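Two proteins were folded this term; both appear here.
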Amino acid sequence: MRDISNIRNFCIIAHIDHGKSTLADRMLLLTHTIETRGFRDQVLDDMDLERERGITIRSHPVAMLYRAKDGREYTLNLIDTPGHVDFTYEVSRSMAACEGAVLVVDAAQGVEAQTVANTYLAMEHNLEIIPVINKVDLPSADIPTVRQQIEEILTIDASGAMPISAKTGLGVPELLEAIVTRLPPPKTDETGTLRALVFNSVFDAFRGVITYIRVVDGSLKVGDRVRFLGTDIETEVKEVGIFKPKQTPCATLTPGEVGYFIGTIKTPKDIRIGDTLTHAQHPATEMLPGFREVHPMVFSGIYPLSTDDYEKLKASLDKLSLNDSAFTYQPESSVALGFGFRCGFLGLLHLEIVQERLRREFDVDIISTYPAVVYKIHLKDGTSTTVDNPVHLPDLSRIDRIEEPIIRAFVICLNTQIGDCMKLVMDRRGTVDKTDSLDARRVMLTCTMPLNEILIDFHDSLKSVTRGYGSMDYEYTAYAPADLVKMDILLNGEIVDAFSCIIHRTKAVEKGRQLCKALSEVIPAHMFSIPVQAAINKTIIARETIRAMRKDVTAKCYGGDISRKHKLLDKQKEGKKRMKQIGTVNVPQEAFVTVLKSTG
């Protein structure tokens, strides 16, 4: 049994692009966990998407053996975490498996929005924090200012902040020594009863469900019969192991260790992230404190492009939901798009990543409807309900008021860009509550905004007005009443449910015109003219017309009286009028895809 005082469990937290994955790479090389010949950048980011975008999406655990200056050999369990706001839940559950955190701050960029959020999260979990100033080899590095920001904004003592360069390796050996000396070892009780925290799981087509655990008390070995306390599901342990960084089987997992186990579980839904694992014969009575339950904030319909792919999409979503506890889905159907699923996400990037993974990892062609948030509907009879799909909004005559989710956003930008950022926030129905100076060049705006307003392209607009220097993080605060309406799109008088959306009344006309114009450009002409209309509660607020294809019925009419031509044209007009009444508008799938992309 390994000595628990020689184990250190820690995670690396930082804003996007501040060097978490590069630091993890450097540590793996210095501890000889990975040999130089088998090394590649971002070695822990094993998804193609992570490597392409240069971001970490999933938490990656790895065990490293490190011989310290005192001669003892330590096991360092590192969990590399994502930095993007949408993946805060990944960071949260990784922290639950750790005693300490290495907080990385870019020496040139300083403290950013996500740095603040992740530091608060680490403090909530009572983690010991080691501040690290990375990229000190850059010409623009400003170490004294960054130290000052760490003290003033994050309220952390910066005297122990370590200057390093993860790229060149400068200062990283000293950081490994600091992890051993400054971070506490895990704690365990002496009863010997197994308690392990389930902090992640992945699905393997050949081995079934692989569960990532942090053993708190007791030990786990092959052949043990174990039970999940939260779901009461039992299984037999077929394999246990640690991450080096590949899954490496071992004989036993002991207190304080981070590893994985494979049982006889084949169904993804049987595993609940945050659950406690214990022995079936001698179960623990108390569950481990899990971590904050995450609830999807953004919903969108996902449909297969071909109806034949419905079952394939369902199986793919099943497997995705195992690896991603914040992702939810349930079946729904649409007149325009057929059978599909209503899916819940944490944010827009989360939605984008899930869609991309469906296309790449599962080879499913999909189309998604407009993202929407969860609205609280208070009816006149005193009851209330929640709606995440505009199609299910009750009749307006029954509604007393509609409430929408409000967020507190932290926007960091340069001093010279305050005006543009404030205008952007106010255009999105937000208010700027206060401004704080971070240093001589940058300020942090604290704003209150509706979540609905940042869904579509707020991040893009922020990057545009700040020339790439702006960063933003947000937290959900509460629900507040708003003058919201449901806008429908009608084709030839028929409502197309795929384009329905809940929108603020002041923005409905502009959005309606935009949608009508986009649709009129992609729907092919029919034999009759088609009105494309946007309506709120049967009141038309915008309109475009797709002109009819015109067959030249007078082509064979040579000479003679002009009334012969008029007679043929009148006959054609009557036919078109009758066709318009009974004809159906054929909207090709590509039109939905184009419009949902261009206006989404």
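Next, the second protein.
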Amino acid sequence: MENNRTKIEHIRNFSIIAHIDHGKSTLADRLIEHCNAVSKRDMTEQMLDSMDIEKERGITIKAQTVRLTYNALDGKTYQLNLMDTPGHVDFAYEVSRCLAACEGSILVVDASQGVEAQTLANVYKAIEVDHEIIPVLNKIDLPAAEPDRVRDQIEEVIGLDASDAILVSAKTGIGIQDLCEAIVKRLPAPEGDATAPLKALLVDSWYDTYLGVVTLVRIKDGILKAGMKVQMMGTRSIYEVDEVGVFTPKKEKKDNLSPGEVGYIIAGIKQVADCQIGDTITEERRPCQEPLPGFKPSVPVVFCGLFPADAADFEVLKDSLAKLRLNDASFQYETESSAALGFGFRCGFLGLLHLEIIQERLEREFDLDIVSTAPSVVYRVHKTNHTVEELHNPADMPDPVLIDFIEEPWIKATILVPDEFLGSILTLCTDRRGQQVDLTYVGNRAMAVYRLPLNEVVFDFYDRLKSVSKGYASFDYQLDSYERSNLVKVGIMVNSEPVDALSFIAHRDRSEARGREICEKLKDLIPRQLFKIALQAAIGGKVIARETISALRKDVTAKCYGGDVSRKRKLLDKQKKGKKRMREIGNVEIPHSAFLEALKRTD
């Protein structure tokens, strides 16, 4: 027992948090290297980013964990459990999960860029869960680095004491030794009782083709070892543990996991539904009294329909989504059917990047060809009979006669931007129906707080923000409230047939321009047929925009040379009748790529 006590005092669990591109994954690489966890020849860039998409895009999507052994200057050996977290706002749920499994955080701030919007969002999450925070100024080897200015900025904006912030360069390895010492000196050791009944937090899980479901756990109390029968407290399912171990970053089998440790368990879990992230794992024979608080469930903000391009792939898609859901708890889905696209799923995401990544993973990892509908947000429809229903799909909008009013979600956005781009950022926010809440200055950077309708942000607000500020603005948001608004459903008709996958909900003032824009785009995207195709946008029965795709025309009079004009007339009239009949019974195939292209906005 005494042995175990000293062991827990030598454990440090911490997350690395920062804004996008401030050097979290590179810093994790240096720490792994410094602790000799991987031989020189096996070391790669972004060691913990295991997915191909992460390496290609240079972003972290999944939080990854690794156990390092560090020999401190005082002669003691410490066990460091490091969690590298994503920086993008769409993966904020990954960050909050990691923070729940740790006692401390390393806050990485770029010494040339300073504090950004996501730095603030992540540090507040860490303060909420009572973390000890070590500020680290990265990229001090850059000519543009201003550590003193950034120190003052951390104190001003966040209110953290940055006088003993550690200066490092994750690229060259400067200051890594100082950082390791600060981790063991300044971060608290975990607390836990090895003799108490087993209590472990299920932090993450993923699907392995050979092993079934692998779960990542953080042990709070008790000992977890192979051969034990464990129970998931949320789902009440019972399993026998086949193997326990840790990642160093390679998988390494262990006899047991004791309090304070982070490791994986394999228990032959076949049912994806039995693994709920945030659940508490306990021993079947000697369960703990109450479960751990877990995590707040994530609230999806963007919804879109995913359909298999080939209807026969529906079951494969269903299976693939279940496996992805296991690995990404912030992603949600349910079945739906569409007249144009057949059977598919209505999926909820935390943002457009999240949607893009899930779609790309389905195509890469499961070899699926997918069609997606227009992303939309959740509206609240108040009906005349005093009931309220949530509307995820514009196609399900009730008859306008039954609607009293509609509410749409608003967000509170924090935008940090250098002074010279402030004007164009304010114009962009005002164009998107934004309301300014606050505008303050930190040095030469402005911090604008705006309330914006989520509907206006969801499509391409982030891309526009980056382009008008030459990439210098940073943006973070959270849901604020629902507000009554003058919203209408705009339906798109191709050859007089409504296409439910392209219908959308918009503010009445914007609906006409948006409808016209989609019709214009579809005109270029839909291939020409042998008959005229009418493209229309309509609100209810009123058409608000129209474009016509002209017909491909075969020259039927080519064989007539000279002679009476009535011979030509007769042939042309015959062709005209044929085209009229074709227009009545002809079917227009809309290419899959046209759906996504038509929905991208141009300002």
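The longest strand covers residues 403-418. Residues 565-585 form the longest helix (21 residues). These notes refer to the second protein only.
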